[in-house]
Write a structure and sequence with these properties.
- By secondary structure, the chain is mostly beta strands.
- It has 2 helices and 24 strands.
- Strands 7-14-15-16-17-24-21-20-19 form a 9-stranded antiparallel sheet, with helices on one face. A 6-stranded antiparallel sheet has the order 6-3-8-9-10-11, with no helix packed on it.
- The radius of gyration is 19 Å and the shape is globular.
Length: 333
């Protein structure tokens, strides 16, 4: 397949934070090799600005360029304008995800109305344009102070500690013939009275909506957790099998206008989990202390997805089939 070079016209855009307005930035895609997105069924990327400069916590000017790996600069934090859509993203034909590569460390959902791969073009026409409806879809999840869907942190004194204190964060993306992954290494993550290194691997496959998450801590600590953001007036559904269980929510809980139905679920292995409970911002799954790799799966199902799941009954039926498969094979891949 021939390589296609796509030149996107430079946009000048003004965008603002809650407290102050950023400088006008010029963003362009100089060269995007679309062979990957045309021929493959999964995709992961991380894109950073080059050619600009740091002013305090903000990166001014520059253009975005995809890289295979990234050591996060010390200056980078939320709304630094440095990483396109603020972190790595991964997708297949049905759904996309991103993780904030800063102290928040939450995982967000890109709802898709198309069955093609779209991430190389998201956030190119204005830093946070993905919050607005587009032909491809949009950011549909409000993470707020939570871990989003399947993000991770640590419960300390009934509060989820995110990644406010980390010495170094290194991210790497991998694309193969049958999967795409985001690998993140956190060095010297401080929470409570402990400091550990934590490696995470987030993998998506060609079919279905789920991401496989693998967490490997360097030290056995209590409170390592994941979860699903709590949405107002949305009930939690929980079911346990012989080896695996899931928690899930379904209902009107999106950022679409008007808000519409979204299902979210998290599958976890019973013998790896100490407790499942409601936290301040998340329905929590708290893991037992270990230095072994902890594995779980998470997914979202948006009603506007092409040929997707658009009723609660169909969503729960899909989860129950996956739970049965996990109990029988320890995998849904």
């Amino acid at each position: 397949m021939k390589k296609l070079t796509i030149l996107t016209i430079v946009f000048l855009s003004l965008f603002s934070c809650k407290e102050k307005q950023s400088n006008t930035s010029s963003e362009s895609v100089t060269e995007v090799n679309s062979e990957r997105t045309k021929s493959s069924k999964t995709y992961a990327e991380v894109s950073i600005k080059e050619g600009g400069h740091w002013e305090g916590r903000e990166y001014i000017d520059g253009t975005f360029k995809n890289v295979d790996s990234l050591t996060v600069p010390k200056e980078h934090t939320d709304h630094s304008w440095f990483i396109r859509y603020e972190g790595p993203g991964w997708e297949n034909s049905q759904i996309g995800y991103r993780i904030y590569l800063d102290w928040r460390n939450a995982i967000d959902i890109y709802g898709k109305k198309v069955d093609s791969l779209v991430l190389p073009y998201v956030g190119q026409d204005g830093f946070d344009s993905y919050h607005e409806p587009a032909n491809w879809g949009q950011d549909i999840l409000k993470a707020g102070k939570s871990m989003g869907i399947g993000g991770y942190g640590r419960v300390v004194a009934d509060t989820v500690v995110h990644f406010q204190s980390v010495k170094n964060t290194f991210a790497k993306v991998e694309n193969s013939g049958n999967s795409s992954s985001v690998n993140i290494s956190y060095e010297d993550w401080k929470s409570g009275n402990d400091s550990i290194n934590l490696n995470s691997k987030l993998t998506i496959y060609p079919s279905d909506r789920f991401t496989k998450a693998e967490l490997t801590p360097s030290k056995a600590i209590d409170g390592l957790c994941t979860g699903i953001v709590i949405a107002k007036d949305i009930k939690l559904v929980k079911k346990e099998g012989e080896k695996w269980a899931y928690i899930a929510t379904y209902g009107v809980q999106t950022l679409a206008s008007p808000p519409d139905n979204l299902g979210m679920a998290l599958f976890y292995k019973l013998d790896e989990v100490a407790e499942q409970k409601k936290g301040n911002h998340d329905h929590l799954v708290i893991f037992k202390p270990t230095t072994k790799t902890v594995t779980y799966y998470f997914l979202g199902a948006w009603e506007q997805e092409q040929n997707g799941i658009n009723t609660e009954e169909a969503f729960i039926a899909d989860l129950n089939m996956k739970l049965q498969l996990l109990n029988e094979t320890n995998s849904i891949i």
